[in-house]
Automatic annotation (TrEMBL):
The gene is pdxH. It is an enzyme of class 1 (oxidoreductase). This is Pyridoxine/pyridoxamine 5'-phosphate oxidase. Its EC number is 1.4.3.5. It comes from Pseudoalteromonas shioyasakiensis. Substrate binds at K65, Y122, R126, S130, R190, L191, H192. The lineage of its organism: Bacteria, Pseudomonadati, Pseudomonadota, Gammaproteobacteria, Alteromonadales.
């Protein structure tokens, strides 16, 4: 297998200034709705990139759980690597790779912790098994085997067998307040269409075309 020979042309669509909404949030919602309509698996999946105290980036995939004019929301264990890195440096990047539509969206911004009320509201809306998994997992920390993890899950299931499962004190969420958002549409001969929105000092947005 020759990796350098694996390629294809991007011919599905183009992107021009007159096709874009003045608001990048509304433009993102439009693209997300189109991704959902095509039955794309996990259309809300996004790569979250953070940086540790040594400048080492790390990435992982999480699910977008809410979006409004304030930003992009996700939830996580506050003891996880991503949460610990955000505590030291709240600069963050999100990447939505909608390959089958030949589209990408990249969000740059700052992650702000959500209030406990918002975290609890979402936590209680999750399936019971997901709530139990949150209690069972010390996210990002070593575990000797899957058997040990499943035994912990079973213990949590027994512990919270009656009534509502409470919100763990080590579980939270973030709103990523965007400063820049890029929309990428694949083009023939690698002449892709790229537009970058940038938030201005007064809160408004301006956008312009980038070279591919």
């Amino acid at each position: 297998m020759k990796l350098e020979d694996i390629r294809r042309e991007y011919l599905q669509d183009g992107l021009s200034e007159d096709m874009l909404d003045a608001s990048p949030i509304k433009q993102f919602e439009k693209w997300l709705e189109q991704a959902v309509a095509t039955n794309l698996p996990d259309p809300t999946a996004m790569v979250v990139a953070t940086v540790d105290e040594h400048g080492q980036p790390s990435q992982r995939i999480v699910l977008l759980k809410h979006l409004d004019e304030n930003g992009f929301v996700f939830f996580t264990n506050t003891g996880s690597r991503k949460a610990q890195e955000l505590k030291g440096n709240n600069k963050i990047s999100l990447h939505f790779p909608w390959h089958h539509m030949e589209r990408q969206v990249i969000v740059y911004g700052e992650a702000k912790p959500l209030p406990t009320t918002a975290v609890a509201k979402y936590f209680l809306s999750r399936p019971k098994e997901s709530q139990l998994a949150a209690w069972a997992s010390q996210q990002s920390r070593p575990v000797s085997s899957r058997k040990v993890l499943m035994e912990t899950f079973a213990k949590m299931k027994q512990k919270f067998s009656e009534g509502e499962i409470p919100l763990p004190d080590f579980w939270g969420g973030y709103c990523v307040e965007p400063t820049k958002i890029e929309f990428w549409q694949g083009g023939a001969h690698r002449l892709h269409d790229r537009f970058m929105y940038q938030r201005q000092a007064d809160g408004s947005w301006q956008f312009g075309r980038l070279n591919p």
